[in-house]
């Protein structure tokens, strides 16, 4: 039986997942598409745990967000390669296409958008925090959702933008604003710098919009504080930190 | 995850370790902190690692709300202290 809070399948232990394709998003960001037989489906915002097992039996587990809405047995993950990391550099660049890892999921019923929620969306992404929000944007597009949506996307510089082509394509009811924190493109009206209260003003969405914030811990804490100060009710703000 | 020794994650990271022992998603479970009375979901807890030992703390006052330690074949779980119980949302029964 489906659970009411996720509307998708329950995780059933570890499942084998075969790497089908890898796409470069940024210098260190990749999206990896896996085929997971028996995958029960998921909701935008959910994640999986990934388990790697070394030849000597040593295991490492990490969490990665699902980047696309449910589509059969295809599971797309966003991987930000962390320098010196134990798992992410291997997944990002070394795991061969065709190789198998293990995944557990879908996981999480808190940071999800169930697609039937009425009303508008305000999405705040920091760096690779765009990944679970991209699943929401794609689900919105797939269902021709017609409530307004704003994405504020904080990146260090223009080279750090994931899904650049997809986000730049004109889409009705969607407003995308990129906030450059260290280097803005020439001629940009907004000077480089972290997100401020001014960035939340004058957005084409009502104040009771559902807010989803994902990114590094510092970005999430700061952004959630700004949202509350701007009058967004605390129970409309959902956050996910990745350290 | 970038630097698990100096920063924190949140309760979303507990979904995986707890999924093996709960039949419902645990991250929507609700509590009111017995120390500072802040209500929060399990997903909103501040979670400190590094894994496999994770400590979930109240986002308001950092009081310990749960501890979970994963071992091969085992999960150790301490849920709440004092009045800090969690309220879990049960799945609706089929008619």
From TrEMBL, chain A:
Pfam family, one: FAD_binding_6
InterPro entries, A to Z: Cbr1-like_FAD-bd_dom, FAD-bd_FR_type, Flavoprot_Pyr_Nucl_cyt_Rdtase, FNR_nucleotide-bd, MRET, OxRdtase_FAD/NAD-bd, Riboflavin_synthase-like_b-brl
Every FAD-binding FR-type domain range: 12-113
Gene3D superfamilies: Nucleotide-binding domain of ferredoxin-NADP reductase (FNR) module, Translation factors
Keyword Iron: yes
Cofactor(s) this protein cannot do without: FAD
Protein name: Ferredoxin reductase
Superkingdom of origin: Bacteria
Keywords recorded for this protein, A-Z: 2Fe-2S, Iron, Iron-sulfur, Metal-binding
UniProtKB/TrEMBL annotation, chain B:
Pfam families: DUF6510 (PF20120)
Origin: domain of life: Bacteria
Name of protein: DUF6510 family protein
Lineage of source species: Bacteria, Bacillati, Actinomycetota, Actinomycetes, Kitasatosporales
């Amino acid at each position: 039986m489906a659970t009411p809070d996720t509307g998708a399948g329950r995780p059933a232990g570890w499942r084998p997942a075969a790497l089908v394709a890898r796409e470069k998003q940024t210098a260190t960001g990749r999206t990896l598409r896996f085929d997971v037989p028996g995958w029960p489906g998921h909701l935008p915002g959910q994640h999986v745990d990934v388990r790697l097992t070394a030849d000597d039996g040593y295991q490492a587990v990490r969490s990665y967000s699902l980047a696309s809405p449910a589509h059969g047995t295809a599971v797309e993950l966003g991987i930000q390669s962390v320098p010196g990391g134990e798992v992410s550099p291997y997944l990002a660049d070394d795991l061969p296409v065709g190789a198998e890892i293990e995944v557990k999921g879908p996981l999480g019923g808190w940071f999800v958008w169930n697609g039937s929620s009425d009303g508008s969306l305000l999405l705040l992404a920091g760096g690779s925090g765009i990944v679970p929000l991209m699943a929401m944007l794609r689900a919105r597009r797939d269902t021709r959702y017609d409530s307004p949506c704003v994405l504020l996307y904080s990146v260090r510089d223009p080279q750090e933008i994931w899904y650049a082509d997809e986000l730049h394509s004109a889409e009705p009811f969607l407003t995308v604003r990129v906030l450059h924190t260290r280097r803005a493109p020439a001629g940009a009206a907004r000077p480089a710098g972290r997100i401020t209260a001014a960035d939340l003003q004058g957005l084409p969405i009502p104040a009771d919009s559902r807010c989803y914030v994902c990114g590094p811990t510092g970005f999430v804490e700061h952004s959630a504080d700004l949202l509350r100060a701007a009058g967004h009710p605390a129970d409309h703000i959902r956050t996910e930190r990745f350290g | 995850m970038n630097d698990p020794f100096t920063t924190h994650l949140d309760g979303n990271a507990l979904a995986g370790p707890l999924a093996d022992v709960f039949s419902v998603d645990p991250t929507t479970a609700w509590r009111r902190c017995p120390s500072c009375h802040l209500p929060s979901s399990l997903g909103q807890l501040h979670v400190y690692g590094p894994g496999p030992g994770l400590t979930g703390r109240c986002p308001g006052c950092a009081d310990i709300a749960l501890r979970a330690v994963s071992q091969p074949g085992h999960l150790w779980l301490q849920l709440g202290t004092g009045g800090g119980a969690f309220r879990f949302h049960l799945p609706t029964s089929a008619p």
